[in-house]
Write a structure and sequence with these properties.
alpha/beta, 110 residues, elongated, single chain
Amino acid sequence: MYDAGIFPDWWKLPPPKSDAAWQNISTVIRNNDPYCRGVVLLGLNAPVEELKRGFAMAQGHDICKGFAVGRSIFIEPARAWLKGEADDEATIAAIAENYKEIIDLWKSHG
């Protein structure tokens, strides 16, 4: 991407599977783009246990600044709401609880 002249403010990446991958990502960004703000992890509708592994792997890599895991937070409550199995209040409460769970998970690994 950098060779193509693309310099994003943020990289949104799926969680790398190894410490070496994180080190390579950090090196590439630092060597090519001093203005990049960092990496946020994508959730890709992953279950909480998978997010937990990704967050744990990110720990200690200061290039990773946060997460963008929308579907992991809202997809199941939205499905229930669309099927008429949950009302507005229950859907909002479920999404809020899922979001809180993900935030707590992130904080426990930061």
